[in-house]
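Lab notebook, bench 4. We co-purified these components, and the gel suggests they stay together. Before we commit to crystallization screens, I want a quick structural picture of the whole thing.
Request: model the full complex, all chains together.
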Amino acid sequence: MTMTRASAPPRLLAGLSEGEQRDLLAPALPRLLKPHDVLGHQGGPADLFALIQIGHLKLCRTSAAGTETLVAVIGPGDCYAAIAPIPGSRYPVSAIALEPARVLTWPRQTIAALADRLPRLKTNMLAEISLRMSGVLAVVEDLATERVPQRLARALLRLAAHGYATRGGLEIAHPVTRQELADLTGSTLFTVSRLMAQWEGDGLLRSARGAVTVLDPEGLELVAAAEPD
Amino acid sequence: MTMTRASAPPRLLAGLSEGEQRDLLAPALPRLLKPHDVLGHQGGPADLFALIQIGHLKLCRTSAAGTETLVAVIGPGDCYAAIAPIPGSRYPVSAIALEPARVLTWPRQTIAALADRLPRLKTNMLAEISLRMSGVLAVVEDLATERVPQRLARALLRLAAHGYATRGGLEIAHPVTRQELADLTGSTLFTVSRLMAQWEGDGLLRSARGAVTVLDPEGLELVAAAEPD
DNA sequence: CGTCTCTTTGAAACGCGTCAATGGCTGTGG
DNA sequence: CCACAGCCATTGACGCGTTTCAAAGAGACG
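Here is the predicted assembly.
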């Protein structure tokens, strides 16, 4: 029903000539993912680089104790494993599909050769990592300085920003459980459930089994900006 | 008194020929820093790339509210702003000297030109970012899943690993205040002080005004690995 | 229609932040 | 040389936010 928004040209292709774009895309291997499919596993050899075309993946770390930390949610136009060209590199996080997805993949050898031949591609991949780094640093800052309500409000706003507008609200583009929101904010599904119930009462959002719609972004931002005092 | 350890060749130069190393190092501008000097400011244009020769810097973010988050401590052989070659990029974190330090710097234009000319250099810079990313992701995981004692113990072990061995202990290579340890662990100087007093009583470490020595690394690792249960 | 996963709600315990006051070390200037 | 100021560290008491545990409800799916 809702249109997927017109897919802008991926940042990865920025500044590449038509010919260069063909050279890059020709050897790409498309791959389809079902929910919970694992594209790359944390700690495993990073032997492929991926560009998401359709759908959303979560980037997560599983600690020795088995607890899961959700680092980011990525979608169309985003890359995974921009470090793949580095010989011997390993995935720093796992990538797991949240919904049916389609990605383009390049084996390490291939993307490394392309990156050496196309300087602009290497720069773009650097820019992608830089972007990811910014996001991760924002998460660090949040975790270190903010309380759970602020962290959760920000996480929801971040997710909603990549979603689509429905009647009077921003709907998050992919299914997301309380547990995942907890993993994303370093909290527990109980606390998340309580907060969201409260906010739903306040008319800030509406949630129905996996689908969350932010009704009042300004109101949520007010919560997100509240002093920890 | 204690020897600075023999400086290994920086990772940045790995795989570069003698001639390439000269090309890279010739246009470098050395710069001396005093404690609290700011090498780069978060959010400011990233117009220089730096390689640390001597001393340690802290990488930190200052939030709108003024609270400081310490992302990492870097030392000799480490890089700052490996993203500088990207046009228009900004420093994602501030870099502030913890002690007298000496760094080599390259203006953005210069390092960008060099990176385009020396593919191996670009790869090395990518590897540096990748390394930083690993560290930051470990911090995220810690903040999201561990309690303060574990986080602090890990932070101390991390710092001590880059320090030097003294009689029966690992001394952290640079001055560090309780406040900085708190900023590093998303805690408060009070909690840090209490924990360290307790650990000093247990014989795990010794601390004297800014200088911290880990006496029993295995013991500290035991604390770091304790179940959050 | 039953099972499984996700969610809600309550009550209790506790970790840790907050505030306030004190103490020690360092460097500086009278 | 001593005294003062400034910074950093210590310690206790208190309160609150969150986790923890337990139990029950609600959709989804075969």
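Residues 5 and 164 of chain A are 8 Å apart (CA to CA). Worth comparing against the SEC data before the next meeting. Residues 147-149, 187-188, 190-191, 209 of chain A lie near DNA strand D (CB under 10 Å from a C1').
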